[in-house]
Write a structure and sequence with these properties.
single chain; twelve-stranded mixed β-sheet; 12 helices; 26% strand; binds zinc ion
């Protein structure tokens, strides 16, 4: 006779929101809450030498902040300033606002320059990060009954907090880590896990792994996939992955300097909902003019974030460099917040004459030719990428059965010209010849 234990977590399986009070809060009431928190926070951040100086001119106490629009008068914070700030006062920088004894978690990240950067969290910062991740995974339909295999190399990194998010919502976690695809396959086939948390690139890698092994990906029994860590991945890949594994794939977005996943897609799959209510205040700005933009469907801009509660390294108007499109405001799932898709990083985009191109959109257009192509591409650019001349050389990897090569090359070049408004010179390369990454795909290679 089998005995079914109803645990506390199972009782709450059908709850639609992780934090109903905040996640269903109408936008007007959310604004009131944000203003209240912002006032207290701006007072707080001025205790750090960095913001004490930076806000001296523009912020004369909470009386000068009568509505959220007033925040626009404050200067932006950029990544370079944070690096300089950490160099001047290691490890956390001149923007550290809490005392040393309050810091309860430290993540080290390897900066592009090779010097490590440090991310510090107080107890309440950590709670807020886990709260954000919990809301976004719950929005994606993950519940305590799910067994989630994580292929992310998360433990010692910032993404490690995402594991605490899974634990917090009651999921069973199977941490495997990167570079162990056989173990991942075993976790599903033998271990009967049913969900995967990974980058979209890894899901494609796993798919190819199955194909090479002559295994139908469906035998893994993956029901749900949660993608993170790779903003601006190509939407066309989603249907390929979903149909190959017979699963539902949703995505989430976070940022090391702000929080782990605080954008999360619900099962309607119409973009990622903002899930950081009461913790982060998001703005949208034009990346060229830096003018503020309204949150409205179809708007395209750069995300700018202000922490509403962060204690250790609070940031004000931090430019994320993530360029997004607003896919809607409010959703039939009951979340009234904006939804977004990431178009790319402003650092990665390049210009051909007056046309701005995101490498991820090129990948998306090429992805429409699956399975004649593998989906892997490599855009060859010369420094500085802002001066790119047409035609732009692009290596496109063939699928196992590409058909007529000349016709394929011409069709891809046509599609790029039609959809992205620039001319490309496509070179078809053999299947498997472009480098694969289990983590993030590199779409651009600089050539001299
Ligand atoms: Zn929704």
């Amino acid at each position: 006779m089998s005995v079914h234990f109803v645990g506390e977590s199972e009782k709450s399986e059908e709850r639609r929101f992780w934090n109903p009070a905040l996640e269903t809060l109408p936008l007007g009431s959310l604004k009131e809450l944000e203003l209240k928190l912002l006032k207290a926070q701006l007072d707080y951040v001025r205790r750090s030498p960095f913001y004490h100086e930076k806000l001296k001119e523009s912020f004369q106490g909470t009386a000068s902040l009568s509505n959220l629009k007033d925040l626009e008068k404050l200067p932006f914070t950029i990544k370079h300033e944070l690096r300089e700030s950490q160099k001047a006062a290691p490890p956390f920088g001149r923007h550290q606002a809490c005392s040393r004894s309050e810091i309860k978690r430290i993540y080290m990240t390897s900066g592009t320059t090779g010097t490590p950067t440090f991310v510090g969290l107080t107890k309440s910062d950590l709670v807020d990060w886990i709260e954000c991740a919990s809301r976004s995974y719950w929005a994606a339909g993950f519940r305590p009954r799910h067994w989630v295999v994580s292929s992310l190399g998360a433990g010692p990194f910032i993404a490690g907090t995402t594991l605490e998010g899974w634990r917090n919502i009651g999921c069973c976690l199977v941490p495997v880590g990167p570079g162990r695809t056989e173990r991942i396959v075993d976790a599903f086939r033998e271990g009967k896990a049913d969900c995967l948390s990974s980058t979209p690139s890894y899901a494609l890698y796993l798919l190819e792994h199955c194909e090479k092994a002559g295994m139908d990906p469906k035998v893994l029994g993956v029901k749900k996939m949660q993608f993170g860590g790779e903003p601006g991945w190509q939407e066309g890949m989603r249907s390929k992955i979903e149909s190959a594994f017979d699963c539902v794939a949703t995505e989430s977005l976070g940022m090391g300097d702000i929080s782990v996943d605080f954008w999360g897609e619900c099962e309607k799959q119409n973009g990622m909902h903002f899930c950081g209510q009461g913790i982060i205040y998001p703005e949208l700005v034009d990346p060229d003019s830096l003018e503020s933009l309204e949150w409205s469907e179809g708007a395209v801009g750069e995300l700018v974030y202000t922490h509403l509660k962060r204690r250790c390294e609070p940031l004000v108007r931090f430019r994320s460099r993530d360029i997004i499109k607003v896919t809607g405001i409010g959703c039939t799932c009951g979340r009234p917040t904006p939804m977004i898709r990431v178009l790319g990083r402003s650092d990665d985009m390049f210009k051909v004459k007056a046309v701005t191109v995101f490498p991820s959109s090129v990948k998306e257009v090429v992805g429409e030719f699956l399975p004649r192509v593998s989906g892997e591409i490599e855009i060859l650019l010369t420094h500085p990428a802002t001066q790119t001349k047409a035609p732009v050389p692009i290596n496109v990897e063939c699928g196992r059965d590409p058909g007529d090569n000349t016709e394929l090359k011409n069709s891809i070049e046509d599609a790029i010209h039609r959809k992205l408004l620039f001319r490309a010179e496509v070179s078809l390369v053999d299947f498997g010849s472009l480098s694969r990454s289990e983590y993030k795909s590199r779409l651009v290679r600089f050539v001299s």
